[in-house]
UniProtKB/TrEMBL annotation:
First and last residue of the signal peptide: none
Superkingdom field: Bacteria
Native source species: Bradyrhizobium uaiense
UniProt keyword list: Transferase
InterPro entries: Glutathione-S-Trfase_C_sf, Glutathione_S-Trfase, Glutathione_S-Trfase_N, Thioredoxin-like_sf
Name this protein carries in UniProt: Glutathione S-transferase family protein
Residues covered by the GST N-terminal domain: 2-83
GO terms of biological process kind: glutathione metabolic process; L-phenylalanine catabolic process
CDD domains: GST_C_3, GST_N_1
SUPFAM superfamilies per UniProt: GST C-terminal domain-like (SSF47616), Thioredoxin-like (SSF52833)
GO function terms (MF aspect): glutathione transferase activity; maleylacetoacetate isomerase activity
Length: 217
């Protein structure tokens, strides 16, 4: 069985992405939880799974993959029936492009609005760069809805790897009371109704471990 090493569900947006890709597609896997930012023993345990020293890490027999997007790509190849990427070539290229954009971009938004599921919902003053990130994400969601919305409620109709990549942003928008314009709100609603998204959220909220530097935002 596949093994997925993850960090705290309350905080680890990168862990959430491949976890969601697996759970939303009913792909069996063993979840291995290692608390983040605790002691050396936990750091060493993460290193025992991957020399990168980070989560998530996917283990499939003698294959180890240690990056969220790389894991999703691996799952798409191993489980083609899950259709983690659209079957149409142009749509597939679009899905990969916006997933890569999420993977490497939106640093101001991430820095200013860290994922923290049990944080009381309240707004903060965002920088101009973070507000530009929000606008760009809304544009992505609105454009996908305009192009593929007839096929279903997610970015490319049915749930895809791109949705796994953007799911944590839904939590950031909710937690930091960031308003979403009407053309993109449908996506927030669809994601929050996804059973796998709800399961991760419940588990994250139920966690009792608190990391002080993430609680002061």
């Amino acid at each position: 069985m596949l093994k997925l090493v993850i960090g705290n569900k309350n905080y680890s947006s990168w862990s959430m992405r491949p976890w969601l890709a697996l759970r939303a597609n009913d792909i069996p896997f063993e979840e291995i939880f290692v608390p983040l930012y605790t002691d050396q023993a936990d750091k060493d345990r993460i290193l025992s799974f991957s020399k990168a020293g980070k989560v998530p890490t996917l283990i499939d027999g003698d294959v180890t993959v240690w990056d969220s997007l790389a894991i999703i790509e691996y799952l798409a190849e191993k489980f083609p029936e899950a259709k983690l990427w659209p079957s149409d070539r142009a749509a597939r290229a679009h899905a990969r492009a916006i997933s890569a954009e999420m993977h490497s971009g939106f640093v101001p938004l991430r820095s200013e609005c860290g994922m923290n599921l049990h944080r009381p919902i309240r707004a903060i003053a965002l920088s101009d760069d973070a507000r530009a990130n929000v606008a760009r994400i809304e544009d992505i969601w609105a454009e996908c809805h305009a192009r593929y919305g007839k096929q279903g409620p997610f970015l490319f109709g049915t749930f895809s790897g791109a949705d796994a990549m953007y799911a944590p942003v839904v939590h950031r928008f909710r937690t930091y009371a960031i308003p979403v314009r009407a053309e993109a709100q449908h996506y927030v609603d669809a994601m929050m109704q996804l059973p796998a998204f709800q399961e991760w959220t419940r588990d994250g909220v139920a966690e009792t471990l608190r990391i002080a530097r993430f609680e002061d935002v």
